[in-house]
Amino acid sequence: MKRTRRWDLGPPGVSRVLRGSVLALLLLSPALAGCSNASNDDAVVVFAAASLTEAFEEIGEELERTDDVAVTFNFGASSDLARSIVDGSPAQVFASADEAMMDLVVDEGVARDPEVFAASDMAIAVAKGNPLGIEDLGDLERISVALCAPEVPCGRYARDVLEAAGVSVDARSLEPDVKAVLARVALGEIDAGIVYGSDVASSDDVSAVSIPDGSNVVARYPIALIGDAPSETALAFYELVVSDAGAEILERHGFERP
Q1: Domain count of the chain?
Q2: What percent of the chain clears pLDDT 70, i.e. is strictly above it?
Q3: pTM over 0.70
Q4: Structural contact between residues 136 and 161, judged by C-beta atoms closer than 8 angstroms
Q5: What is the 3-state secondary structure (H, E, C) of 59-126?
Q6: Are 179 and 231 within 8 A, CB to CB?
Q7: Across-strand partners of 206?
């Protein structure tokens, strides 16, 4: 079985074009990519929202096990990934944490016929065991809070939640993606953060405080193939994600069926 690889294409400040060029170089160079035995036809590059990391890695491992292919992931903020794809990055599959970023890629003619395959509500991530006794969104006004940046889907969702609850939070930290928020909380650098419920479910390092339905929002995750002639391997990954088997893996990581 081939190992799923993740490549760090640089921090958010790095040019999206440059990051796309780096990934293209890695794909074209077996020496840099790890010398996989899989040919280009037996490999797929998946750009996916950071919140899908654990679930998609398991799905990738399942596909590698059954189909003897290589799956390479680029996880990050959906907004960064979408713009990178539009700029020409060599993604073959794109999975977004919101439909707006998928619409951007579709409207540019790069992808078509996206399908929503998962959903997740939002939750408050706190230190393991909730030592500060945080009970609701109102408590966030008295502690240090991290949120995703406003241009990132999890940042928009967090602000929708706070607005619906009538809570004003002066975020101490604005992070590039949801995993960065989760890491700040897990390390004790921040008291709490608003993240996807699925992220808390996938982490052993934080605890969750639920958000009432009246204030919560549900993130819907679409997936699409990139380009007019997707490879068989790209299609196989896509089909596994939207299948019942894929849904079962996603549910194990805290996602819901749409």
Answers
A1: 2
A2: 84
A3: yes
A4: no
A5: HHHHHHHHHCCEEEEEEECHHHHHHHHHCCCCCCEEECCCHHHHHHHHHCCCEEEEEEEEEEEEEEEE
A6: no
A7: 127
